[in-house]
Structure prediction request, 280 residues.
Amino acid sequence: MSGKNLFLLILAIFVLEMAVLAVMGGFGGSAGKEEEVWFSLGPVTFYKHGLLLEVMEKSEFLHLDRTPEDQPTFWEINLSTAKMILAVDVILLVGAVLIIRSLRRVPGRLQGFFEIVLDLFRGIVKETLGKHADRHLPTIVTLFLFIWFSNLIGIIPLFSEPTRDVNVPIGQMLCMILIVHFEAIRVKGIKAYIKEYFEPFFIMAPLNVIGEMTKGVSLSFRLFGNISGGSIIILVVSYLFRYTVMPVGLNLFFGLFVGTVQAFVFTMLSLTYIAVAIAE
Prediction:
């Protein structure tokens, strides 16, 4: 994608966000007041000033253990987050099908863009993992694309980033940590894997275990903190400037730039953890 096309895409998103805010009453002195129902479409309800940051208390939850709605429970699903994850999955699946069907020897712009992304990660994974690269390349590329689109989807009016919910980064972290330890056992064997926790001295085992746990905590909360922090900044500035140019521009900045950087950082750290785990 050329610089001109990228600029036009950003400009189109900017204009779209401004138009949605104007239609939904997000300008002027009334902006930021208590939400009013705009209209309902089946199970989906649209609110005026609905581009505010959603707080957990106002999110819609599904309790799997039949706990009353006004009582918190561990066995609950944030339906807003689940809908956004489903939207990202649909975008990725539909995009994959369209790209596969339009593959050409001479790539078009869309095919060329994803070929560049694939070649970039193929080189990084090959250099980092060596002979194990082909085994992990699909996982690394899929992880990046999912997090990337999850961060970018927030720039679309009426959508929000699923990574803003702490459960999503934690879930991604648990999957990657499981892969890390599974690969360590597969490559080194269970005895060598356990032995590493007692090196260089036996008494270091608790610290080594804590060190492995901190990897997961830092991996997940870094992504959550940056995405949710950006949303809070947009919320604060929106109250100050009544949803005019600056909040929309900040939304594009955090979605495009910060979202891309954080997706790349999360992916590279996961790749590094795999490389360290299988290093002989």
